[in-house]
Amino acid sequence: MFIRQMSYLVALAREGHFARAADACHVTQSTLSAGLKSLERELDMRLVVREPRFAGLTPEGERVAEWANQIIADYESLKQDAGEYRKGLKGNLRLGVIPAAMPPVSKLTAPFVAKHPNVTIDVRSMTSAEIQRGLDKFEIDAGVTYLENEPLSRVRKAALYRERYVFATSRSSVHAKHGVITWKDAVQHDLCLLNDTMQNRRVLNNLADSLGLEMKPSITTNSYLAVCSHVTSGKWSSIIPHTFAYIFSGCEDLVLLDLVEPSHSQTIGVVASDRDPLTPLARALMSCAAKLNIETELSGRKQTAVRLATV
Prior knowledge:
Blueprint: H1 2-15, H2 18-25, H3 29-43, E1 48-50, E2 54-57, H4 59-87, E3 91-97, H5 106-115, E4 119-125, H6 128-136, E5 142-146, E6 155-170, E7 180-182, H7 183-186, E8 192-194, H8 199-210, E9 219-221, H9 224-232, E10 238-241, H10 245-248, E11 254-260, E12 265-273, H11 280-290, H12 294-309
Helix pairs in contact: 1-2, 1-3, 1-4, 2-3
């Protein structure tokens, strides 16, 4: 019963409304209210401000809600851990993935599901900052993000591959026949890039700054889908991760050119909260990631893309 009452408090803190919190918990509003009052009596402190409607949590309520998040997560992990010995691992793995890592994410999820067929996976597109918050608040089990640039704190890591960069442009471009392009030449093109809220763009900005260059895109966005739309139109070019060869492989009017002078890369990997014991789902994912050799497969794909660019 104590766990259920804490789930009511967490839902109220998240929803900020009694009726929505009750709906989220699949109970009546009176049941939710009674459960919260019972929790207040149990802890001997006021958690909710009622004037007479919900007006927020008290400072004590905010703190208890933070602990409740952790306790609920630990309770679910306990059930998963104990149940694994009887029926194998079950549950729903909540995985936050930065947009730049979306194209090859199935290289991680496919072998995981093959080993744990009773686990479902909820893949969420998130920024690196959102992944950090999600892990800290127990809203996700693990993330896929950059490990070196703006590294996350309080996490365990397992490297997956090195992200490299290619220049996506029209096959009619003067540089298309060369198979490579320098950063200096690339920034002179009419570019569509991610905006500065995305870490991938900040990686590119830092690299350009180190070379004394300036990125001046005419189109910016927080969506790679929008980047793809503008690049395939033929008017814009873009600087994208090499893994997006998967996305553009059928676009005959485009070429992907290696970016050189310099060739740059960043490590992308799996992260999970650095806590003991690690949740069963996060532990299983980290174990799976440690056994994969995604880098070799992606390198082969990159070489194929480069050969296509020179045809």
